[in-house]
Amino acid sequence: MNKFSLAVLVMLVFTFVSQAQKHEQNLRTIFDEALTNGQSYPMLKYLSLSIGHRLSGSPSAAAAVEYTRQQMESMGFDRVYLQEVMVPHWVRGNTEVGRIVGAKSFGSKDMKVTALGNSVGTGSAGLLAEVIEVQSLEALESLGKKNVEGKIVFFNRPLDPKHIHTGHAYGGAGDQRVNGPSVAAKYGAVAVVVRSLTLALDDVPHTGTLIYDPEAPKIPAVAISTIGANELSKTLKANKGLKFYIETHCEMLPDVLSYNVIGELTGSELPNEYIVVGGHLDSWDVGDGSHDDGAGCVQAIEAVRIFKATGIRPKRTLRAVMFMNEENGLRGGKEYARVAKEKGEKHVAALESDSGGFTPRGFGIRSTDEVLTKIQSWSDLLAPYDLRKLVKGYGGADINPMEDQGTVLIGLMPDSQRYFDYHHTSEDTFDKVNKRELELGAASMAALIYLIDQKGL
User: Fold this and answer.
1) Beta strands of 122-250 (E only): which ranges?
2) Which domain CATH number covers 321?
3) Phi and psi dihedrals of 363, rounded to 5?
4) How high does pLDDT run on average in the chain?
5) Is position 16 within any domain?
6) Best CA proximity match to 359, nearest among 283, 299, 436
7) Are the C-beta atoms of 280 and 330 separated by less than 8 Å?
8) For 172-194, how does the pLDDT look when each residue is reduced to its tens digit (9 = 90+)?
9) Where in the sequence is the domain holding 185, given as residue range(s)?
10) For the chain, which terminus, N or C, has the lower number of CB atoms within 10 Å?
11) Is residue 395 part of a domain?
């Protein structure tokens, strides 16, 4: 090796080492800012306690739009704007009744139920019919119309507790809630009762959206708590022809105008390349939506604020996006992707937090194997912050519509064990969120988008 080649090699090694040290220092700065001057927790407190639940089309959803817009403006984002989107306006109504009727040992007994999102209601007359229990859509189909017509179908498949990541258990049982009402209606059922999608054994019913098949009648659908489901199942076994009464007053009103809320920090070198970090601003109307997904929204805002506060200049434009209507329509995510495609915007990556504000464990990545390998090569930089999972994953419901544009989709992966205890329930409230865990999640998101921005994909 000649002297010139040696000098070049030494210079390259020096540059590599200095760049690595710079990234280590900036990641430490990101976490220090989040953990000492973090704004995610007070933002979530206001969103949860002063505004409350934020079902699409509701006045509180509109208030949340204005609040998050003002927050990003006050933090000095370069640009903050609203993106129009028409959203469904479903209302629950004030009365929800579920009741076992005609049991030999006790007669009648009220059970805790809650209407599934987008469901039609029974009206004040209610609905009383014989109830039959099934474990799956396939089991229902095997019964045939003669055994289902005129009855209430009770879907009672529990989540599989063998899954370590509880999201996999949730996904494995979700078809009975999402598609069960329409499948039951095709066989003549008059309503459905669905076991709550949780591993917890409690008396708290979990709502969540259903999707009606346009080719099937729309029938009322409610969720029953896991304790209630076990009791109903036990009572059915001892009482042939047992009946169940349902009364709900929910209805779907005409679509209304709402907004995605978008805040930007303009890139210093590649301003026309975008990295999105986001959560969904809407929530169900039974709690205050702190974990689902107030946490994700404030973490997204905080992730971008950290860059502004620390003076770390992104090369690419960072966007914090508060998506509207993830819960019962996904209109916000679809509209954002449509507009991005129409404008020809280049989205390098999109990162969503929609699994609660628990301790971050890593990221699920939806990409080519080449990109996944590159992100995994940053594991030494992320390991000091216990971000050890860099694995193939789902991304997020709001960002998935961008997949066909070549965008790398990433989902924050917090510890999942408690999330479905609160998910879609009246228990999803601010007091269930730990300040430090929330701040660590925001810092983790900022750290990953920093590495994507600096190193590229």
Assistant:
1) 127-134, 152-155, 191-195, 221-224, 243-248
2) 3.40.630.10
3) -140, 140
4) 96
5) no
6) 436
7) no
8) 999 999 999 999 999 999 999 99
9) 93-249
10) N
11) yes
Distance, CA of 104 to CA of 19 (rounded, Å): 75
Who's near 334: CB < 8 A, 6+ residues apart? Answer: 401
d(CA 409, CA 277): 10
Residue 4 has a pLDDT of 60
Percent of the chain predicted with pLDDT > 90: 95
Kind and range of the H or E element at 424?
none
Beta strands 221-224 and 243-248, pairing class? unpaired
CB 298 within 8 A of CB 250: no
Q: 68, 42, 58, 44: which is closest to 90 by C-alpha? A: 58
Clarify whether residues 100 and 205 are in a common domain.
Answer: yes
pLDDT score, position 18: 76
Listed residues 249, 278, 308: the one ending a domain: 249
Give residue-wise pLDDT tens across range 85-97.
Answer: 999 999 999 999 9
Question: Interhelix angle for 3-37 vs 295-310, to 10°?
Answer: 130
Distance CA(368)–CA(107), nearest Å, equals 59
Give per-residue burial for 316-327: e unless 16+ CB within 10 Å, then b. Answer: bbbbbbbbbbbb
Six token digits for residue 30? 């990101």
Cβ contacts of residue 352 below 8 Å, gap of 6+? Answer: 277, 278, 279, 296, 395, 396, 397, 398, 399, 409, 410, 411, 412
> Starting from the edge strand earliest in sequence, which strands make up the sheet with 152-155, in order?
107-111, 96-103, 243-248, 127-134, 152-155, 191-195, 221-224, 113-115
Is there a single domain that holds both residue 159 and residue 183? yes
Regarding whether 259 and 237 lie in a shared domain, the answer is no
More reliable by pLDDT, 12 or 422: 422
Measured from the Cβ of residue 423, the count of other Cβ atoms closer than 10 Å reads: 25
Beta bridge partners of 109: 100
Q: How far is CA 432 from CA 206, 231, 232, in A?
A: 16, 28, 29
Facing residues of 209 across strands?
117
Q: Given the structure tokens 């915007």, which residue do they identify?
A: 345
Given this model, what pLDDT does residue 20 score? Answer: 84
Residues 48 and 153 in one domain: no
| Omega of the bond leading into 421 within 30 degrees of 0 (cis) | no
Tokens of 164: 């370590």
Average pLDDT over residues 218-246: 98
Shared domain check, 235 and 262: no
Section 356-362 average pLDDT: 98
Asked if residue 368 has pLDDT above 80, the reply is yes
**Would 58 be classed as within a structural domain?**
yes
Q: What is the mean pLDDT of residues 199-204?
A: 98
**What is the tens place of the pLDDT at every residue in 294-346?**
999 999 999 999 999 999 999 999 999 999 999 999 999 999 999 999 999 99
